[in-house]
Design a protein that fits this description.
Largest sheet of chain A: 3 strands, antiparallel
Largest sheet of chain B: 9 strands, mixed
Structural class of chain B: alpha/beta
Shape of chain B: globular
Order of helices and strands of chain A: EEEEHHHE
CATH superfamily of chain A: Coenzyme PQQ synthesis protein D (PqqD)
Helix content of chain B: 25-40%
Number of strands of chain A: 5
Number of helices of chain B: 14
Structural class of chain A: alpha+beta
Number of strands of chain B: 9
CATH class of chain A: Mainly Alpha
Strand order of the largest sheet of chain B: 7-6-5-4-3-2-1-8-9
Oligomer: heterodimer
Number of domains of chain A: 1
Strand content of chain B: 5-15%
Number of helices of chain A: 3
CATH topology of chain A: Arc Repressor Mutant, subunit A
Chain lengths: 93, 354
Amino acid sequence: MNGAISAQTIPALRRGIRRHYDATREQNVLLCPERVILLDDIGNSIIELCDGERSIAAISLALAERYAEDPAQVEADVTSFVQELSDKGLVTV
Amino acid sequence: MIAELTHRCPLQCPYCSNPLDLLKAADEKPTDFWAALITEAAQLGVLQIHFSGGEPTARRDLPALIAHATALGIYTNLITSAVLLDEAKLGELARAGLAHVQISIQGANAESADRIGNYRNGHEKKLAIARLVPALGMSLTINAVVHRQNLHELPEMIELAASLGADRLEIAHVQYHGWALRNRAALMPTREALRQADAVVAEQREKRRGSMAIDYVIPDYYADTPKICMGGWGQKLLIVAPDGRVLPCHAAETIPHLAFQHAGAHPLREIWETGPAFTAFRGTGWMREPCASCAFKELDFGGCRCQALALSGDARATDPACHRAPDHENLQHIAADEAGSGITSFHYRRYAHS
C-alpha cells in the first residue's frame, strides 16, 4: 500500500491543488478537483508549510514554536492531518 | 458553476447528460457574454468553474475564458473528451491557468470504447492527451462511465487510469436522464454485475490509497435511499447552458413550468438567490409526505426531482430511488427487466435532424 507516513516524510501539495483565500467567506480554502475544503487556521498553517522541502518533523517543530504548544502533540496532529490529505489524494508524500 | 459552452461534440455517447434537444452553434453565446458571466460569478463567491459541454474545446475562446477565471482567483476544471486537443492546445490551456483536466474514457480498449462513443480512434487520442496532463502540472482525473456493456472491463479501466498517471479516477455508473434514459435497456447492469463492481472498487481503493483517489457513483436503480442531487437543489451548483439559461441541474429543463432565466438579462445573484427555478425545490419547504416528516430530509434534500418526474410523473413526488417511495418496487422491476433485455444497440447522441 502507498501513502504510509512518518516524521521523515516530506509532504507537498499535489499538482493542480491550490490554497486560496476566499474573500466572500473570509476563509482560507483548499481548491481541489470537484471539491473545496474549508481550512481553519491550523490546517492553513500546516498546508502553508507543505512545500516539498520540509519534513513532518520540521513542520511540527515550526508550528510548536509559533503556537507555543507541546511538540509531540503537534507532530501527532500534523501527521494525522497529512495522512488524511494523502488518503484523499491532495498531498503527495 | 458549470459552464456548458456548447452542445457540439464529436462523440455520440448514448448516455450523454445533455438534453435530447441539443442546441446548435448559432444558439451559443459569444466570448464577451461568458467573460461577463465569469466576472459576476466571482463576485457572487463562485470558487470553481467547470468548463463543460458538449465538447468545450470546440470553442476557440476557451483559453481566454480560463485565463479570465484564473485571474479572478477561480479554480478551473476542464471536462473533456480530449479528442480535439493536441500538445500545443493543451499547453495553451495550462499556461492560461487550467488546474484540472477530466478526461472521459468509454471503455478499457479501443474496440469497446470507440463503439460506445461512436468515434473512430477516439480512445487512442484520449490516452495520448491524458499522458501529457500531469507533465504540464495539472491534476488529471479519468472519468470512466460504466454500464452493462463495459462493466466487465472495470479492472482494466482502473489499471489504465493508473498507468496514465491519473491523480483521481471517477467511476460513474450511468445516471438515467436524457440520452441515458432513452438507452436505458441497453445500459442497465445486472445486480450481480453491480455487486462484483462494488467489490472491485473497494479493493482497488485500498490498494491505490495515496497514489490515485477513486470516487464511485452508484446507480439509483439499485439503491435504497436517494442521492443528494447536485449537493442539494440550488445550494451548491449552478449550470449555464450554451444559450445562457441558468439551470439548477442538467436535467432541470425536463420539468414543465419551471421558468429559466437568462444570464445577462438578470444579475446572476438575483437568479441564484430568488429566481423561480432555483427557489422551486431549494430546501425542504416544497416537500410532501413521506418526505416532509422524514428524518433524512436535510441529508438528501429529497434526492432527484427530475427522476421523480420521469418515473412517477410528478416532480414533487418522492424520488423512486427511496425505499419509502410508492414507485420504488417498480424501479427495481424496471432495472431487473431491462438488465436482462439483451439489447445491445444504441440510440447515439445526435442532432434531431442530421
